[in-house]
Amino acid sequence: MLARAGTPTPLDTLCSSHALQALSPDMLEELASACTVHRAAAGKYLFRRGDPSDSLFVVRLGRLDVVGNGEVVRALGPGDVLGEVGTIEQAPRSASVIARRDSELLEITRARVLELARRTPELALALARVATERLRRDAQSPGPVHTLPSTVALVSLGPGPALAAVGERLARACASFGTVALLDESELDTVDGQAPDALWASVLDRAERGHDRVVLVTSATESSQDWTEFCLRSADRVIALAGREHSPEMLTPALRGQLNGCHLLTDADSRTAPALAAWRTALEPRTAHHAASQPDAAAEIARRLCGRAVGLVLSGGGARGLAHIGVLHEIRAAGITIDRIGGASMGSVIGGMYAMDMAPEEIEARCTEDWVRHRPFSDYTWPRHGLIRGERIGRLLDRLFAGLSHEELAREFFCVSCDLSNGELVVHRHGPVADSVKASICIPGFAPPRRLDGRLLVDGGIRNNLPVDVMASSGEGPIIAVDVTALRSSSSPAQQLPSLPETLARLAVLASEDTVALRERYASLVIQPRTEGVGLLDFQRLDQLVDAGRRAGRQSLQAAEQALSVLAG
Predict the structure, then answer these.
(1) Burial level of 78, CB count in 10 A (0-12/13-18/19+)?
(2) How far apart are alpha carbons 44 and 267 in whole angstroms?
(3) Cα–Cα distance between 342 and 322 in angstroms, integer?
(4) What radius of gyration do the chain's Cα atoms show?
(5) What pLDDT shows up at residue 280?
(6) Which helix (H) or strand (E) holds 319?
(7) Is 336 helix (H, G, I), strand (E, B) or coil?
């Protein structure tokens, strides 16, 4: 239990601000006397782009996001300064700022800032340094910003796994990556005459300052309603714990809205397609995990919260995608735990099997049977919609994934396809896995397009053959990218022309132009098996391709020992 601590005074906040540390004590005191406290509720805008710049702010408590062009471009926490450029230049706000959770800020009016800056040049210089440093950081890291959650709310929705036990498991798992404080309402006695929220906010502030991560534990019951509301307003991320007797219909509309986008933990008995589909529809969780009472579930969520959930992205490339199997052998041998998998085209087939928790040996055996012996791309037909009917590959995938939905897989899995009507990239994360993979592997002109959810879909490799950017959008950890098309060369002598099926398969891969740029920007480790000389329909060369994947995987992992220690940790 943490001892009580008062909310920091304005002077405390200003003195602890890295941005203002060069100011003299006299100037800090003068600034503190000019401050008023501004409160921003979770989900509310502090200001919007284009608003008048009539104040400068310093974050006192909480977390806020700077939003530009619909993306979070900067995260703000205690001590951060915002609005300094517009305030001094008297220009409109250049971006919007929204409170990620309940926050308090110190506000200083533009008139007071300008008065102090004219009288004391050190303030103007300090604010100029703030703006310059921010521009430098933005230039070094363009694009959306992902910040790890510092405060997490664990909310029990009803009967099921013991809340305290799950909270302790989660805290222990997070402690592998930093210090953790576990806070429960029963440990926070109120003081007569003091509002509970004020006490809770001050204790949370102290916990955040002294720990890398704080876990707030609560139960969504009437007796804990105030504490639960505080936890949900104060958390950067929410974990909902659902027992087998609980259902989404029992949640109030308000609570359902607050839980939207949470991590969902359910009992093992709840891991059925209908139950998970109901929860997904109600809460749209970031992730859904079964067997909440098992340590592995808490460990995986902890890795996600702490930015250590390793993602694996497998490229398309026809038969060359069989090299992914060899890489999987080496990843497993290196002791790397993969929590998230994504793929395009043939990468979606191999990735989907690994997401089912198939061992690499089993994947290799299935591919030998399904792709080498049964040749699923050989059901040629009169080319009205494609060179093949696509029925054989469809039946193969139906057998392989056996009616499983994405939600029922052992690991998070997505794959990509392309909407033929508008060229948009479609990311498949929900529903039957077989349907998703059928769309992702549908080479246009070679196989008929697939109809799914009102769309006409073809091979995802056309738009994004290595969707590392899709994986990186969650900001939950490092990414291993395997690109089997990186070292392309012709599969036959230059004077010989490829067959029509081979030409169509190559076009599907070549159409994705951003693979190199994407992997260099987002991937922590890139593995490039040497697949030159192998045609995109040469599935009979499976053994050679698996060996190529093994060699490339082993060499890349050995060459990145320091990165490997992080990935395997």
Answers:
(1) buried
(2) 34
(3) 15
(4) 27
(5) 80
(6) none
(7) coil
Which amino acid does the sequence have at 1? M
- Residues taking part in catalysis: 345, 459
Could you give the residue ranges of the DSSP H alpha helices within 141-195? Answer: 163-174
Cα separation, 522 vs 483, in Å, equals 13
Angle at 268 between CA 256 and CA 217, to 5 degrees: 50
For tokens 């891969």, name the residue: 509
pLDDT at 265: 84
Q: Residue 269's closest CA among 160, 407, 413, 406?
A: 160
Give the β-pairing of 71-76 and 45-47: unpaired
For 470-482, give the secondary structure using H, E and C: HHHCCCCCCEEEE
Tokens of 429: 């994360």
* The pLDDT value given to residue 541: 94
State residue 274's pLDDT score. 64
Tokens representing 376 are: 């699923």
User: Has domain 315-486+498-565 been given CATH number 3.40.1090.10?
Assistant: yes
- Characterize the bridge pairing of strands 525-527 and 287-289: unpaired
CA distance 516 to 16: 43
Q: Are 74 and 145 in contact (CB under 8 A)?
A: yes
First CA to last CA across the chain, in angstroms?
Answer: 29
Contact 262, 240 (CB under 8 A): yes
Q: At 384, is the secondary structure helix, strand, or coil?
A: coil
Angstrom distance (rounded) from CA 440 to CA 431 = 14
Rounded CA separation 521/42 (Å): 32
In CATH terms, the superfamily for domain 10-139 is: Jelly Rolls (2.60.120.10)
Q: Which two tokens stand for residue 360?
A: 């690499």
Q: Are 188 and 314 in contact (CB under 8 A)?
A: no
The residue type at 498: P
Fold for the domain defined by 151-306: Rossmann fold (3.40.50)
384 touches 256 (CB < 8 A): no
Which pair of tokens denotes residue 7? 């909310």
Q: What residues does each domain of the chain span? A: 10-139, 151-306, 315-486+498-565
Residue 237 C-alpha from the chain's centroid: 12
Cβ-based neighbours of 379, under 8 Å, separated by 6 or more: 388, 389, 390, 391, 392
- E strand map for 381-524: 412-419, 425-428, 450-452, 455-459, 479-482
pTM of the predicted model, to two decimals?
A: 0.83
Nearest by Cα to 76 from 92, 59, 88, 90: 59
pLDDT at 273 over 70: no
Q: What is the enclosing helix (H) or strand (E) of 277?
A: helix 273-283
- Report the 3 state secondary structure along 169-222: HHHHHHHHHCCEEEEEHHHCCCCCCCCHHHHHHHHHHHHHHHCCEEEEEEECCH
Q: C-alpha dihedral over 240, 243, 244, 250, to 10 degrees? A: -70
pLDDT band of residue 421 (cuts 50, 70, 90) is confident
pLDDT in the model for residue 380: 47
What is d(CA 28, CA 14) in angstroms, rounded to the nearest whole number?
7
What's the pLDDT score for residue 279?
A: 81
Quick one: which of 46, 135, 121 has its CA closest to 85? 135
